[in-house]
Amino acid sequence: MTNTGTLSRYWMFSDEYTQNPYPFLAQLREEQPVCRVETPDGVRAWVVSRYDDVRDALSDPRLGRDIGKLYAALGKQLGQEIKPADEISNHLANSDPPRHTPLRKALTFAFTPKRVRGLRDGWEKVVDDLLDDMVRTDNRDLVSGLNEPLPIITIAQLMGVPDADWPRFLVWTNTLRRVDASDPTGIIAEHTRQLSDYLKALIATKQRTPQDDLISALVHADEDKRLTAAEALSTAFALMTGGNDTTTSLLNGSFAALLTHTGEADKIRADWSLLPNAVEELLRFTSPLINSLQRVTLEPVELCGVKIPKDEIIIISLAGANHDPHAFPDAPSELDITRPKPAHVSFGHGIHYCLGSHMSKALTELAIRRVYERFPGIRLAVHPSEVRYRPGLMVRPMIDLPVRF
């Protein structure tokens, strides 16, 4: 274990943690498996970091995801009323049963592996076109050239967004991903409004003229599986932002890991049948979401022997769980693409398990194969320690990934 010293209450928001969270999480698992932290703006929370505790917490009905209750708890701490943007935040991931149940039923019905498989030929063309653009423009950054645009374009395809509108989505989502959350220029608010207005118009079009896409399926399903226009809007917004960020993070982490651990990449290139299991291991090793969406205690709970009152914020460390030696006793800090069925928690666990997991994995498999087939000599253009990240509570956005072809 790397000794990080006594952890300050702000450790989770330090640059050291942002660049390499794993020494901090190793210390946490050993010394404080349920640890009190504080954000720079004064919000206090509890971090859960051991694998078994993380799985239990992810499926514990006493730890709620209801956005209204979560914001009420935050407001109570800060001494002010905080209201969520209901129009775009009232979606599946921000709800608990009973409301969660029909929303998940509707999405499960519409967001099927069969629908995803039907899009794969189109994805391959998108990947090839993006790689062509990288060559044409002499762009040697995999983040901006491939890993950021690919998920948003494929999600736009899934939802039935016309091809001509993809560039607008790239601008909007890049703004929401990159800009200072305090929004001093107002650009986040403006691009949020533009994206919301576009999605409202798209949903109205699909209601009038359905096509073979996810939005049409959601608003034209049987009554017990149909979303209202408002529910479809918040769902589409969540896919365009959260779903996009998760897959971008997986692609960034996967390529960084394979370009660093070249022996593991060589194993895959020698036997492409290893690729599906390799992606599962990359999900464990890279933890595209370092933390899950925050929970709020709906009643007093005890986690790993720590008593926590009602209305407390819980941060569940997926990265901590994915590197726990008790769950992965064979060198959890090493990448091993032949590790037998790595039971990671990168897509969650329980009723909030990510419905888009099959799409994210399929897209990552395709991108890895096409990149290595197209550029067999690809390698990092910088030392692995020079790959840098921006801070984020859920995702560590990679700044760039310079390569040589």
Could you list some keywords that capture this structure?
single chain, 405 residues, alpha+beta, Cytochrome p450, five-stranded mixed beta sheet, two-stranded antiparallel ribbon, 9 strands, 51% helix, 7% strand, globular, disordered N terminus, heme binding, oxidoreductase activity, acting on paired donors, with incorporation or reduction of molecular oxygen, Cyt_P450_CS, monooxygenase activity
Structural overview:
The protein contains 18 helices and nine strands. It has 405 residues and is of the alpha+beta class. It has one domain (11-404): Cytochrome P450 (Cytochrome p450), CATH 1.10.630. It has a five-stranded mixed β-sheet with strand order 1-2-7-4-3, with helices on both faces. A two-stranded antiparallel sheet has the order 5-6. It has a two-stranded antiparallel ribbon with strand order 8-9. Strand 1 (34-38) and strand 2 (44-48) form a beta hairpin. Helix 16 (275-286) crosses helix 18.
Quick synopsis:
This protein is an alpha+beta fold and 405 residues long. The protein has helices at 15-19, 22-31, 51-58, 67-78, 86-89, 100-110, 113-117, 120-136, 142-147, 149-159, 166-178, 187-208, 214-219, 229-260, 262-270, 275-286, 318-322, 357-374; strands at 34-38, 44-48, 63-64, 295-297, 301-303, 306-308, 313-316, 379-380, 403-404. It has one domain (11-404): Cytochrome P450 (Cytochrome p450, Orthogonal Bundle).
